[in-house]
Amino acid sequence: MGKEGSPKIHSPDMKRKRLTLILGASGLCILFYFLGTWQSRNSSPSEVPSKVVCEESFSGNKKPSLESSPLSSSVSDMLDFESHHQLVVNNSEEIVKFPVCDMKYSEYTPCQDPNRSRKFPRDMLKYRERHCPKKKELLRCLIPAPPNYKQPFKWPESADYAWYANIPHKELSIEKAGQNWIQVHGDRFKFPGGGTMFPRGADAYIDDISALIPLSDGTIRTALDTGCGVASWGTYLLKRNVIAMSFAPRDTHEAQVWFALERGVPAMINVLASQRLPYPARAFDMAHCSRCLIRWFDYGGLYLAEVDRVLRPGGYWILSGPPIRWKRYWKGWERTREDLKQEQDAIEDVVKKLCWTKVVEQGDLAIWQKPLNHMECHKIKNIYPEPPLCKSSEADAAWYKDLEPCMTPLPEVRNDNEVAGGAVKKWPDRAFEVPGRIRSGSVPGITAKKFREDNDLWKQRIEYYSRLVNQLPHGQYRNIMDMNSNLGGFAAALAKLPVWVMNTVPSHLNPELLGSIYERGFIGTYHDWCEAFSTYPRTYDLIHSDGVFTMYQDRCDITYILLEMDRILRPEGVVIFRDMVEVLVKVKSITDGMRWESRIVDHETGPFNPEKILLATKTYWTAEG
């Protein structure tokens, strides 16, 4: 009961007062709304760096700026970050302009620099491995493109042609002239599809393989090509829906990996030496060596044991070239019959101890298969104890990890026919099937439900990206780098486009993440973004950075990460940064001094999400001729 003298709740005076308050509050809201709109329209926008005057392209047209292709001109119509956020995005007085590096660095590969490599031991090819510059040796400048650089041919034409001006190296066309690796035709290179062990061409060679194993029905999706040349094998596998991770060292076969990437084919600078390959266990459905010059039987079969680690259960290893079919080729190889026979016997001995089964030796090809599980292998180990099964449980750990003289054990199974770690569906169904590592709980915090939700999330995000970067769905970009791939949802959402994605899992995260990506039928690598990536300059069309700079801002100077992104990004290439707005403002303040054009736009869910997107384009410029 109310106190004496208090107003009655339902009295006419009280109702009028409440109505007056409601109308007054509504009026103020409307007034402030219009004032805010007027202020947003009339306030000066955040300062945008002036355009870089760029050279004209080979077609004679000026390079597009941020306001035109490749970034959608409708972005400003859909979103206006600056009208929603009164945040100073940049200040011209704070921009640090980065100088251009000397032209001698145009082909610079920081962690595979030939001059630095010579300082390291030659045993086990250690000098060919990653040896990154120390902090005081890091370049704080922009790697220049050569004076006559042209945009690469678009896929699929790029599979057959590349501009000579982009990679001015004729060495392979001379050294491999009789093997049809690469030819010079005026201002361009032509890739006839030949190879040392496939004189009829890579396509016919792959047909020979397909006649022996199920290569074209989706069973085999991921492949590893050791010593890849110009990656013709990987190129012609693509039309069979098989994606190969091709690798080769930076050696006397100058620029072979560079040619592969210029063709629009996945490749990395890498070498099988004293450390594990930067890929997870049970990653590849097939591994291949075509006269790759790796001495497989050395060090007790250490290199074959590494192939065994990265092969999926039931995966195939294909060998052509010495010593296979030595009875026919021994004279041409300039080796004795006894030497070649001894080499093949040594390889056969190693694979037997790895519990592999020889599928076939026919013509120039020999093919072995890894078992589905190790139930029978445990019995074989009683007879052939070397190499022993590894005791470490870190099968996926592969970042700067030394090779071990042991055999990686497969996950336990209940019967002889069960696939260790779980079977995968055929491609393309496996792309969206819950990976075995997630089903088994090997990836903490990730359930089947969360995996499916992640797929749905990235489908929505790619739809949004396609509006922001209008050429993404139309073949403008081919080579794509995802700097923090998580579960591979970004790559999966792009699977129907004519692109491939280098999925990268930061080396300090759970290595099982990359294993799950491979189980989905995609490829990738471990990497620490405080160091340079194992590739040549100007090899990626689009880079995607999801939370990378929040992750690394306390690990190393993010300026060097951005300079590395500039090194590997092609002129006119695009970067999509996704991060917290405060981080993106800092990133933008650096990229504005790198001859990039950029702007921050709102999250796909709207302006109230603190996560934003920074869209950036590397402008076209080259070293002075």
Describe this structure in words.
The chain is of the alpha/beta class and about 625 residues long. Helix content is about 30%, strand content about 15%. The protein contains 19 helices and 17 strands. It has helices at about 10-40, 75-80, 80-85, 115, 170-175, 200-210, 230-235, 255-260, 300-310, 325-330, 335-355, 375-385, 435-440, 450-470, 490-495, 510-520, 550, 560-570, 580-590, and strands at about 160-165, 185, 190, 220-225, 245-250, 265-270, 285-290, 310-320, 355-360, 365-370, 480, 500-505, 525, 540-545, 570-580, 595-600, 610-620. It has a seven-stranded mixed β-sheet. The N and C termini lie far apart (about 95 Å). Mean pLDDT is about 90; it is low at about 1-10, about 35-70 and about 85-90.
